[in-house]
């Protein structure tokens, strides 16, 4: 299956973002986590849609991969500010996904 | 609910694209419809994800709305070449969605 | 387009659930809203996927429409306990969607 | 991250289904592949939505995992009838996903 490295990175990123967004709801400092939850959800939605698109032979997916790269970088920046394990792991998944997007685009 | 006009246009566009992509499979000239099916599916995925994002207060959705506008225009161009009722109706839904994206962006 | 009433009800329900889940994050009593946010997100995901499926001629969608009906009822029960406008409107969209699912199934 | 084995199996299954549905469009015997394309697309949509749900702490996901198990079995049955490499690999991904669903449910 073509693009499998990028598809795996996108799905892994989306899973971590969805998990982090939900786990933030159980933290004591939940009001501090609102920006993290929103960025997680946005990142999950864009990465999940792009993973579905990459499985197809449609010719022009660069624009969506650029959207993924940008939101992954933003989401990593937001998540890495928090010490929660789910935030740190999410930031790591986002960074790896942003790199996989860069490799695809270059 | 904010952005409800654009969300409705995106969901209507995605529904028509999913329906058109599937209905093309039952046409006799299916080999002629492959480009239409692929563009429909791409458009449906991007519009559906963006509809989900617009319901959130995440600050930066312009990039995704631009992606929607662009794929809606392309999908309308591809669909309107075919006389099938589902293609003509899909082209119409795509044009209306592209306009709603433009209104949002301007 | 076939099943358009149910598809519209599912997309309307998903949009309200996504909006309510996000708007809850801006409420002062956010800890009280966690159950509402989780149920909203689950309902949005199931209804959005089912709206995409109904556009296709795949023969067996009853199981997914039953899942929608069940989560819409649960989500309406959770949302209607809260006085926030987004919760009340979401409960209403969920009830209407549950009814549209019942009509489809009967 | 909890449920990571099932989430990975669901995302892998969805990616193969999306890829197979698209690759079928480039086959010479495309009319023979219509049932495969439709089942692929249905399976991809249900598995992708369920992967997103499993990342959350929402209590009741058994119904959706049962839906995944059932459509994965059906999709494997349809795909394995075809000799195309994408169909055989998709059938394998569907069987593994159905097993991961069974393990989760038992």
From TrEMBL, chains A, B, C, D:
CDD domains in the cross-refs: DUF326
Chain coiled-coil ranges: none
Stored Gene3D superfamilies: 1.20.1270.360
InterPro entries per UniProt: ARM-type_fold, Csp_YhjQ, YHJQ-like
Highest taxon of the lineage: Bacteria
Protein name: Four-helix bundle copper-binding protein
């Amino acid at each position: 299956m073509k693009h499998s490295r990028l598809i795996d990175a996108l799905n892994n990123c989306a899973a971590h973002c969805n998990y982090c967004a939900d786990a933030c709801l159980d933290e004591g400092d939940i009001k501090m986590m609102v920006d993290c939850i929103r960025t997680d959800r946005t990142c999950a939605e864009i990465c999940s849609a792009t993973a579905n698109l990459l499985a197809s032979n449609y010719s022009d997916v660069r624009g969506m991969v650029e959207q993924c790269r940008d939101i992954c970088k933003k989401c990593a920046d937001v998540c890495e500010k928090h010490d929660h394990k789910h935030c740190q792991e999410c930031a790591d998944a986002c960074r790896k996904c942003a790199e996989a997007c860069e490799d695809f685009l270059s």
